[in-house]
Amino acid sequence: MFRLLLVQVLIALALGAELQKRIKVESKSIFSLVEYTNFHKYPHHASLQYDGVYVCGASIISDIAVLTAAQCTLTHTILSVRYATSFYNAGGELLKVSRIFQHPQYNPNTYDNDISVLTLSSRMSRLTIAKPIRLVNTKAVEENREGHVTGWGHKEALHILTARKAKEIDRARCHDYYVRANKTLTESMVCFSDPAQNPCQGDEGSALVVDGQQVGILSWGYSCDKYYWPVVYTDVLYHRAFIKQYAYV
């Protein structure tokens, strides 16, 4: 018994050392650029899953509805939402999605109107620790807003929730970047950028929060490694009528 316990301890120590080594290596390129966090700090954040596999980020907007990007629901119709946890594949509560309201004018080529409202099979029971995010209701002066976007992304090898700062880039400047890549910005989009590290694939659908209100849904960008390129978000204010129609918030 003691020998078995000793072996288990040695294995745990070895794994811990390897994990620390891995973190040190990764931090040079990725982990030093983001803030490890937990859902208590961003209690609105949720994980959208298909058959137990993480698909996208999402945000809680009521006790029975979440908000995500339409690209996350385009090919996946049987979905679940995990919330009240810092891990996308463990903990919290897992609820089935009962209905998907994808924007009827969503364009998968341009990502215009990249938004879906999902209603759940039952009401969330852990809203004492998880909380819906308030949605922006009034137009703000563009360029000066600063906020955070949370997510796991495909590069977060430890699968722990992270947060990144985001500063708004005016539309004209953002357009100048993407016209070179033959991409078009529309009225339903806003641009933000992190001077250190942009969000990554797998973060789509996550909420961009400014002053406690969700102003955007992470939609698309050039590359998570090209941190000097702005990231494009679906403008929540532009779609307030659509959200209210299906989520009543």
TrEMBL record:
Domain of life: Eukaryota
GO molecular-function terms, A-Z: serine-type endopeptidase activity
N-terminal signal peptide: 1-16
Record's keyword terms, sorted: Disulfide bond, Hydrolase, Protease, Serine protease, Signal
GO process annotations (BP): proteolysis
Residue stretches making up the Peptidase S1 domain: 14-248
Keyword RNA-binding listed: no
Keyword Disulfide bond: yes
Similarity comment: Belongs to the peptidase S1 family.
Protein name: Peptidase S1 domain-containing protein
Native source species: Pyrocoelia pectoralis
